[in-house]
Amino acid sequence: MRWFVRGDVDGFFGLALDNLVQLLLIDALCRFVLGFSNELIYGAVLPGAAVSLVVGNVFYAWQAKKLAEKTGRTDICALPYGINTVSLFAYVFLVMLPAKLAALEAGLNDAEAARAAWQAGLVACLGSGLIEFAGAFVADWVRKHTPRAALLSTLAGIALSFIALGFLFRTFARPTVGFTTLGIILLTYFGRVRFIGGIPGGLVAVVVGTAIFWIQVHTGGMPSPGPMPSGGLTFHPPMPVFGDLAAALKSGFAVQYLSVILPMGIFNVVGSLQNIESAEAAGDSYPMRPSMAVNGVGTLAAALFGSCFPTTIYIGHPGWKAMGARAGYSILNAVFVTAVCLTGTLALIGWAVPIDAGMAIVLWIGIVITAQSFQATPPHHAPASVIGILPGVGAWGALMMKQGLRAAGLGTPQAPFTADLIGRFLQTDTWAHGAFALEQGFIFTAMIWAAATVEVIERRFYRAAAWCLVAAVFSGLGLMHSYQWTVGDTAILLAPARDWAIGYGVMALTFALANFITVPGEGH
């Protein structure tokens, strides 16, 4: 298998766009929420992110090339890799922002408080990396004892909701760009045709989408993105931040924010495991331990060089593979991210190439992942796949509820979120309490519910009961369903979710007694 093939161009545009969105989010949140200076963002955070992304992208490209040589195949696709979106938001709003506010209350000035927030983020990222690395040594056991439907349907729920639905709304909000680029993607990837001259479909979609966007901007059909960002090229080499990290560890941030670091680290381990299973279902069988270990090393590298944001093996391997991407798209992504993060051109690229131009590619990935949860599992396990999808959709619904509240002016220090909202939602027959409880640890909920359903379908009732007991333990530890109110969000609370733990216990007892209190139905 060659290092670069035509399909790598398509894969690169999709993966690079995804990573570009994460980098733009980091820039905006660090600047406007945390008050980081340009020196801190462009001199430490972004270079650190570049180091972490290069570590993973280069390794997974090399891993794909070695697997191709070992199997004699030419269709091996590298595992996609990038910054973990969930951890990005969690560490900004649940670690760094509280650390900054605490520093301000202690009398520090804005610059000192921002640096304290950054140091707290470094500790959180370091903790996540250690958990991810340790998880590599137990992931094989988890994978061996978990039905495939449980692993794939959990990803499908995330893909359908957090990836596909959001971009579907955007597609219908910007139909000229959205419909045109989606048509190009459907034609080339579902229709399996090529443009004359062999031009990659992803490249065509991005170029055409960008052109339509700017034509509409100049004709008044689309809001202007504003003036071109000023500032020339500047080089910011990545530098280790051992001193700041040591100071942060002495400050006790690791213990103070353990309630966020621990569940997010476990969440990242399980998510990466599921994505490796998804790759195997698509035909590319990667060894679990080194794949997971390098994922952890990438996150550790981020913390050591100044980034507060963990990396992860991305969802979407089957989609990139279907596009024809192999190993090269991962290398191209590493080069692109390095150039963007080290030269200060992030704002310029984000201004010139709108997200709208590539959203059809991301929507395609969501469709392929959702379809895989049914295509790569036994047909009679389809009900379990549906059940595994529901928690992800429900968690996204909870997010939309909170976004709506923020749009209405709530979620500020003057009008914070409070438990009174539950009663107001209930007046419209909206069970917000259940939605917010489901949202916390939903990736565990999805996997456990789908696995238990598979065991019920196969009449392995004791195994189904065991999965319910796992859910009871997780709920008892506060890793699932236990939440607390913050100013503008609901966050996981590492305190026993007693009602849910009891419910899972009763459910486990029901399954355990099934052999004694039930008989096979007609036709079984």
What's the topology here?
Blueprint: H1 6-33, H2 38-71, E1 81-83, H3 85-105, H4 110-135, H5 139-144, H6 148-173, H7 175-190, H8 201-219, H9 242-250, H10 253-256, H11 258-281, H12 288-304, E2 311-313, H13 317-323, H14 328-343, H15 346-352, H16 359-375, H17 382-407, H18 420-426, H19 432-439, H20 442-457, H21 461-477, E3 483-485, E4 490-492, H22 498-512, H23 514-517
Antiparallel strand pairs: 1-2, 3-4
Helix pairs in contact: 1-3, 1-8, 1-14, 2-12, 2-14, 3-4, 3-11, 4-9, 4-11, 4-12, 6-7, 6-11, 6-16, 6-17, 6-20, 7-8, 7-16, 11-12, 13-16, 17-19, 17-20, 20-21, 21-22
Q: For the CA atoms, what is the radius of gyration?
A: 23 Å
Widest beta sheet: strand line-up? 1-2
Terminal CA distance: 48 Å
Percent strand equals under 5%
Count every beta strand, where a strand is a DSSP E run of 2 or more residues: 4
Number of domains: 2
Largest sheet: 2 strands, antiparallel
Q: Averaged pLDDT, please?
A: 90
Q: List the secondary-structure elements in sequence, H or E.
A: HHEHHHHHHHHHHEHHHHHHHHHEEHH
Residue share in helices? Answer: over 70%
Number of helices: 23
Low-confidence stretches: none
**Shape verdict:** globular
Q: Please, could you describe this protein's structure?
A:
There is one protein chain. The protein is mainly alpha-helical and about 525 residues long. The chain has 2 domains: about 5-145 and about 235-355, no CATH class; about 380-515, no CATH class. About 70% of the residues lie in helices and about 0% in strands. Strands 1-2 form a two-stranded antiparallel sheet. A two-stranded antiparallel ribbon has the order 3-4. Helix 3 (about 85-105) packs antiparallel against helix 11. The longest helix has about 35 residues, at about 40-70. About 50% of the residues are buried.
